[in-house]
Structure formats: structure tokens, C-alpha cells
Design goal:
Structural class: mainly alpha
Shape: globular
Distance between the termini: 29 Å
Membrane topology: Multi-pass membrane protein
Main location: membrane
GO cellular component, one term: plasma membrane
Subcellular location: Cell membrane
Mean pLDDT: 82
Low-confidence stretches: 1-33
Order of helices and strands: EEHHHHHHHHHHHHHHHHHEEH
Helix content: over 70%
Strand content: under 5%
CATH architecture of the largest domain: Up-down Bundle
Strand order of the largest sheet: 1-2
Keywords: Membrane, Transmembrane, Transmembrane helix, Transport
């Protein structure tokens, strides 16, 4: 049995150093029965439910202006608001979980997700739907909180595979949710999507409340109001510019103003965070080599993941006369679903590989597999079965990479800061996917040609989209190679 020092903080924020037996889980130390399989399953289901909210409206995105009686500009906010809220929420909810209890904060987020789904299900117009979608976006914070709960509650030998599974749900929910959404929208009123989301959220809420233990690893302290407001404003400006720049024009005063303003706000925010005793995001911890390089690699992998998510559905559904494959929505969604299944299947495999080789080789292998998939997409004259195989390859790579990232992060931060650190890493992945959505959409739009009465992306545009995905995967591989090993005390000592 190995004894080590772990640092905790009291409610007032003063450091207290206590001895703990690391091989024991919180369940064992508190005398509660250990049910690791149930805890893992519930947290994975929570992650799938939260990430499903990101793609729930994709099948009817083009029809929203008609369905809501709104302009295209207003209807676009139904998609944008979920991205904004989820990206801003993840690091904040992670920090709150470290302070007040990860399970407690996860329950609050799930409750808001259910409330948002109900509001959206009842909404007759665009404004209440935007409100409901914003509340749904808060649920994304459950994923980093779930990963942190696993570290605090599971025996060490179970941690690798469990972390891989919950981390992969960030991609799994979207991949599996797309065909489900397509099926529902083809056969029922679109509001049924939100009633289904409310039912899923309520089920998960009950399961988390009854099956998941509360971690006793907390920092205490006070909420960093300046940090919360500064991060929210800075990220909102940047993400708005990225997600709406294609509509507003990348060189328009509004887009440029948001980009420059967001960057300026984040610079000031970082300056202030370095001078606060108990900051929202501990930038000294985030600047450690393993954390910084892993987060940068996460941006690149998020970009690589979403490049295919934007390009493949359009290529599959595009009419054959325009160079596509002419598949109906549901059939196209079913062709993409195996990617999510591959992520799920790779989770236990990734856990075993991580135990043997460590998380860094896993990230290198995952990003290399994604690069191979995009190489095939660039070189082949794509048919439906090619896309199916390539998408499965990308799913395998994402499964390995997303399994490695939380373990790389948690091996380099104090146990009391895993919620905030995992929240920031989830944010980095979201920045990658948001950037890919904007860049690939711009590439496909710029390459569009007229086919009859319609305008459609050209084959050259799809080729360029796959090249961007390949470049992102290669960048991720290079960054992963240079991730340094954490110092022995990184996961035990606070940054200041």
C-alpha cells in the first residue's frame, strides 16, 4: 500500500495537507459499497445524453426558418446558442465541481438540461426555443465532471478504461444521435425530439442521483466572479465570430470586432487570473508542459473530428448529378453511425492499451489513424462503402485520442483541480470542432458551383475539406509527440 500527500483546501481556501491511501476509492474510504460498473455506465450514459444535444437539430437545420416562422439569421441562433453555452459552461462547471462537489454540480446541470428540453418541446416560436437550447447546452459540463468523478471514486486499475469510455461520449452522442434525430423527424413532429431529450435527461438525472457517489475531494474557496464573467465574454466573442463569420463575412467589421475584442478580453482575463488567489482557471497549472501540449493537441483533434462530420453528410446526401452519392437523410445518417460505435468499442481497448503503454502513445496512434483515414479520403474516388470505412477509421482514432487526453491531463494536475482541468480540455476540443465547422463550411461554400437550379459544393471543395482534416490530424500527431512527461509531484502539489 502506497501512502502519499494530497493537498486539499478548506471552505475558507486555506491549504490542508492530509494523508490518503491512493489505492482505495472514495467508496471504500467512506464505507459505501463499490459498484464501479454501474457508476461507469451511468456516467457514460450521462455523457451520451449531453453530447446528443449538439446534433439533435442537424437533420432539420435547413427547415428551421420555415418551421419557426423566423428569418434564417434568427433560426441560426438555435444552433449557435448551444455551442456557445456548452463551451463557456464546461470550465466553469468543472471549477464549481471542484469547489462544491462534482456530483452535486452534475445534478444541477442535468436538471437544467431537462428544463431546457421541456421548454424547447413546448416552444411555438424561435425565442423560447433559443432559451431552451441554451439550457440544453449546459449539460455538456457533465462530461468533464464525470471524468473527474471517476478519478476520485474508482480503483486505479479501473480508471483507464472508464475514463476512455466517458471521454469518448463527447463524440459518441453526436454520431449515434444523428440517425435517431433523422428517424424521429421523418416520422413525427420535430417537437418529439425534445420530449425524447427530456426523457433521456430525466432518466440520467435519477440514475446519477441514486447510483453515483459524491467525491470527497474538494477545494472549497469562493467563486471567482471576475474569472467567470471575463471567460464568458471572451469566449462568447470568439465563438460567435467563428460560428457566424461565414454568414456575416470574415472581413466584416462585426466579425473582426468580435475576434479582436474577444482576444483582448481573454488577455486581460489571463492577466487578472494570474493575480487571483483562487482563480477560475489556474493558468500556472494550464501552462505546465503536459497540460498545455495536450490542450493544443485537443484543439487539433477536435478539428479533425468535425471536418468529416461537416463534409461527409453533405457528400452522401448531395445528388449524383452534382457529384454526390444521392442518399436520403436517414440512410446517410446510418452510414455515419458506425463511427460512434467504433468509439464505444475502442474504449475498453484503449483502457488496456493505456495501462500497458501509457496515454501519450495512445494519442499519437489515434491521430495517426485519423490521418490515414483522411489520406484515403483524398486519394480515393469515394463511394458509400469508402466513406463508411474511413469514418470507422476516424472513429477508432478519436476513441484512442479522447481516451488519452483526460489521463494526460489528470496525470499533470492536482487531484483537487481535475474538474476545472478536464473542463478546460473539453473546451479545447469544442474550440476545435467549432473552428472546423466554420472553416469547412467556408471551404465548401467557396467551392460551390451551380447544378441546374441549385448550388452545391464541388468535388474540389470536398477534397480541400479532407486535406484540412488531414493537416489537423498531422498537427495533433506532432504535438502529441512533444508532450513531456509530467513531473512526479505534478498531480499532488498545488500550483501556488
Amino acid at each position: 500500500m502506497r501512502w502519499s500527500l494530497t493537498t486539499r483546501r478548506s471552505i475558507e481556501g486555506s491549504p490542508l495537507v492530509a494523508l490518503s491511501q491512493e489505492p482505495q476509492s472514495v467508496l471504500e474510504r467512506t464505507g459505501r459499497p463499490a459498484r464501479p460498473n454501474l457508476v461507469i455506465a451511468v456516467l457514460a450514459l450521462a455523457g451520451v445524453t449531453a453530447s446528443f444535444m449538439q446534433t439533435i437539430l442537424i437533420p432539420i437545420q435547413g427547415e428551421l426558418p420555415h418551421l419557426l416562422g423566423a428569418s434564417r439569421e434568427d433560426a441560426a441562433w438555435v444552433i449557435t446558442i448551444t455551442l456557445l453555452v456548452s463551451a463557456i459552461c464546461t470550465p466553469i462547471s468543472g471549477k464549481l465541481g471542484d469547489m462544491y462537489g462534482k456530483r452535486r454540480v452534475a445534478l444541477v446541470l442535468l436538471g437544467l438540461l431537462v428544463a431546457g428540453s421541456t421548454v424547447a418541446a413546448l416552444s411555438p416560436s424561435v425565442v423560447p426555443l433559443i432559451v431552451g437550447r441554451g439550457l440544453q447546452g449546459l449539460g455538456m459540463g457533465v462530461i468533464p465532471l464525470g471524468i473527474s468523478i471517476l478519478r476520485d471514486t474508482l480503483p486505479e486499475e479501473r480508471l483507464g478504461g472508464a475514463t476512455a469510455l466517458v471521454s469518448a461520449t463527447l463524440g459518441v452522442g453526436g454520431a449515434l444521435g444523428l440517425p435517431l434525430s433523422a428517424f424521429v423527424t421523418e416520422r413525427a413532429d420535430w417537437h418529439m425530439l425534445f420530449w425524447a431529450a427530456a426523457a433521456m435527461g430525466a432518466t440520467v438525472l435519477v440514475l446519477v442521483a441514486t447510483c453515483v457517489p459524491e467525491s470527497d475531494v474538494r477545494t472549497g474557496g469562493r467563486i471567482d466572479v471576475v474569472g467567470v464573467v471575463g471567460l464568458a465574454i471572451g469566449l462568447a466573442c470568439l465563438l460567435l465570430a467563428i460560428s457566424r463569420g461565414g454568414d456575416w463575412g470574415w472581413t466584416s467589421p462585426l466579425t473582426l470586432g468580435l475576434l479582436l475584442g474577444g482576444a483582448a478580453v481573454l488577455l486581460v482575463w489571463g492577466f487578472l487570473e494570474l493575480r487571483i488567489h483562487d482563480p477560475l482557471v489556474d493558468l500556472r497549472v494550464s501552462a505546465r508542459g503536459p497540460v498545455l501540449m495536450t490542450n493544443l493537441a485537443s484543439v487539433a483533434m477536435g478539428f479533425a473530428l468535425f471536418s468529416s462530420s461537416v463534409a461527409f453528410p453533405q457528400l452522401l446526401e448531395l445528388p449524383e448529378v452534382a457529384g454526390g452519392l444521392g442518399l436520403p437523410l436517414l440512410q446517410a445518417s446510418m452510414m455515419l453511425m458506425p463511427s460512434g460505435i467504433a468509439m464505444l468499442v475502442m474504449s475498453p481497448v484503449a483502457g488496456r492499451l493505456e495501462t500497458v503503454f501509457g496515454p501519450k502513445p495512445l494519442l499519437i496512434a489515434g491521430s495517426s489513424i485519423i490521418a490515414i483515414g483522411y489520406t484515403a479520403a483524398v486519394l480515393l474516388d469515394l463511394h458509400a462503402w469508402h466513406i463508411l470505412v474511413i469514418n470507422v477509421l476516424i472513429g477508432v482514432g478519436i476513441g484512442l485520442g479522447y481516451a488519452a487526453m483526460p489521463n494526460l491531463i489528470m496525470g499533470a494536475v492536482p487531484a483537487s483541480e481535475t474538474g476545472a482541468a478536464n473542463g478546460l480540455n473539453t473546451l479545447m476540443r469544442a474550440l476545435g470542432t467549432a473552428s472546423a465547422s466554420a472553416v469547412i463550411a467556408a471551404v465548401l461554400t467557396a467551392s460551390s458551383v451551380r447544378v441546374g437550379d441549385a448550388v452545391a459544393p464541388s468535388p474540389g471543395g470536398f477534397q480541400m475539406a479532407f486535406i484540412f482534416g488531414f493537416i489537423a490530424a498531422v498537427v495533433c500527431t506532432v504535438l502529441a509527440v512533444f508532450i513531456p512527461a509530467p513531473r512526479p509531484d505534478d498531480s499532488e502539489l498545488p500550483a501556488h
